[in-house]
């Protein structure tokens, strides 16, 4: 294939591996690269990846990594191929836009699966950009006698999944922190609270959008909020269908002075068909021991942090603490004060904003904060009667 380099020559001892159909392979790889991008906001910080299985001159099936924590593209392609009338014995080539993973993450290594799959040729569109893993997966496949080809002109990572380049950059690896998605619902004028008498003083987005948020909650490791939101709205931050209640995220409250009420809805047990994660409260050290004891008895875990120059704890330190707890993808659901602080500190990687068909509202508008942001990979869509904006920020683009 023009524009690629062969990492291992064609097997000499097989006698049954057909020459690669280069025209088909190029066409399919380019289609995979384009189509994989449809899931970029669902899988981030992981890369959006597409894979396909060929049987000689026939395309058997495609597969994509469709959501964070879900099956990788290689496994999805094999699952779809299993429904094809083409027998498995004829499957000889796997095309994949990015080097198969060789380390344990949310799922087992794809290289481990491929070594057991019987596939005899793997064509890769890009190497893993993380220097700690780059080429490792391909070497494992080569060592097992699988032909490996690199077609690095067909699925450049800078076009398919540029956010992944930011996630694996040296700066991000040096000071790791969770991938942070800021989500909020706003009126047409950018307020997060509707006018008096509208939506019960709370709801802006449609039921369709609320259900979509339940899905998102089931695909993050934690939900972050501020004590102001707890006091104003008394949210539960549980996960209900169509979200996955079996995987409820942590509930993390930024509460410097332990003002969270011990009877807050956050602490209520999960109801039938509902998932509710543990409550973690981040505060400044040295708070009232009576309030701390009451919150611990309610079920909270308390984590004192250091004071910053603003007499609050550092957002950066909070992010680093989350990383130390194994949290990799978190959802910021908060009021305008904490949202604006996160945005100003450049700690937000991704946006999801629901704008309802409501005029006016109460409180400050997010419009000014939004106007200063550089959006990348922007996607505007409609969901019910809401307008939805998704985008990457900073290293996410």
List the helices and strands and how they pair.
Elements: E1 5-6, H1 22-36, H2 40-43, E2 50-55, E3 58-64, H3 73-81, E4 93-96, H4 110-117, E5 121-124, H5 136-143, E6 147-150, H6 157-160, H7 162-167, H8 170-174, E7 179-186, E8 191-193, H9 207-217, E9 222-226, H10 227-233, E10 250-254, E11 279-284, H11 289-298, E12 300-305, H12 315-324, E13 329-332, H13 336-344, E14 350-355, E15 362-365, H14 367-371, E16 375-383, E17 386-393
Parallel strand pairs: 4-5, 5-6, 7-13, 7-14, 9-10, 9-13, 10-11, 11-12
Antiparallel strand pairs: 1-6, 2-3, 2-4, 8-15, 14-17, 16-17
| Oligomer description | single chain
Number of domains: 2
Overall geometric form: elongated
Secondary structure tally, helices: 14
Give the structural class: alpha/beta
The percent range for helix content is: 25-40%
Q: On the 0-100 scale, what is the average pLDDT?
A: 90
> In percent terms, what proportion of residues is strand?
15-25%
Uncertain regions spanning at least 5 consecutive residues: 1-15
Strand element count: 17
The CATH class of the largest domain, by name, is Alpha Beta
Q: Specify the CATH architecture of the largest domain.
A: 3-Layer(aba) Sandwich
**CATH homologous superfamily annotation of the largest domain:** Dihydrofolate Reductase, subunit A
- Rounded to the nearest angstrom, the distance between the terminal CA atoms is 30 Å
Output the radius of gyration: 24 Å
Q: What order do the strands of the largest sheet run in, or round the barrel if closed? A: 12-11-10-9-13-7-14-17-16
């Amino acid at each position: 294939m023009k524009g690629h380099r062969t990492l291992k020559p064609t097997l000499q001892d097989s006698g049954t591996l057909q020459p690669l159909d280069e025209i088909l392979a190029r066409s399919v790889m380019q289609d995979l690269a384009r189509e994989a991008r449809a899931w970029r906001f669902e899988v981030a910080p992981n890369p959006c990846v597409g894979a396909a299985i060929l049987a000689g001159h026939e395309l058997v099936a495609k597969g994509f990594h469709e959501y964070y924590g879900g099956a990788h593209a290689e496994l999805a392609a094999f699952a779809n191929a299993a429904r094809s009338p083409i027998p498995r014995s004829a499957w000889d080539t796997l095309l994949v836009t990015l080097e198969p993973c060789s380390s344990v993450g949310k799922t087992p290594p794809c290289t481990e699966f491929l070594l057991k799959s019987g596939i005899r040729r793997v064509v890769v569109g890009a190497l893993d950009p993380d220097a700690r893993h780059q080429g490792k997966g391909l070497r494992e496949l080569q060592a097992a006698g699988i032909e490996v080809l690199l077609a690095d002109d067909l699925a450049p990572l800078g076009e398919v999944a540029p956010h992944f380049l930011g996630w694996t950059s040296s700066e991000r690896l040096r000071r790791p922190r969770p991938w942070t998605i800021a989500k909020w619902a706003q009126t047409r004028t950018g307020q997060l609270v509707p006018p008096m008498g509208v939506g019960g003083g709370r709801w802006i987005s449609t039921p369709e959008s609320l259900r979509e948020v339940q899905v998102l909650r089931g695909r993050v490791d934690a939900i972050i909020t501020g004590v102001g939101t707890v006091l104003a709205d008394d949210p539960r931050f549980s996960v209900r269908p169509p979200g996955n209640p079996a995987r409820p995220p942590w509930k993390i409250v930024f509460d410097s002075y332990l003002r969270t009420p011990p009877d807050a809805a956050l602490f209520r047990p999960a109801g039938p068909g509902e998932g509710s994660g543990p409550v973690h409260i981040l505060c400044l050290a040295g708070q009232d021991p009576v309030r701390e004891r009451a919150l611990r008895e309610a079920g909270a875990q308390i984590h004192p942090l250091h004071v910053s120059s603003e007499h609050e704890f550092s957002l950066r330190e909070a992010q680093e603490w989350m990383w130390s707890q194994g949290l990799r993808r978190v959802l910021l659901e908060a009021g305008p004060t904490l949202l604006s602080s996160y945005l100003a500190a450049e700690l937000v990687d991704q946006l999801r904003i629901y704008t309802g068909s409501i005029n006016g509202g109460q409180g400050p508008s997010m419009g000014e904060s939004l106007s200063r942001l550089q959006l990348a990979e922007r996607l505007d869509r409609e969901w019910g009667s809401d307008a939805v904006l998704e985008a990457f920020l900073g290293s996410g683009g």
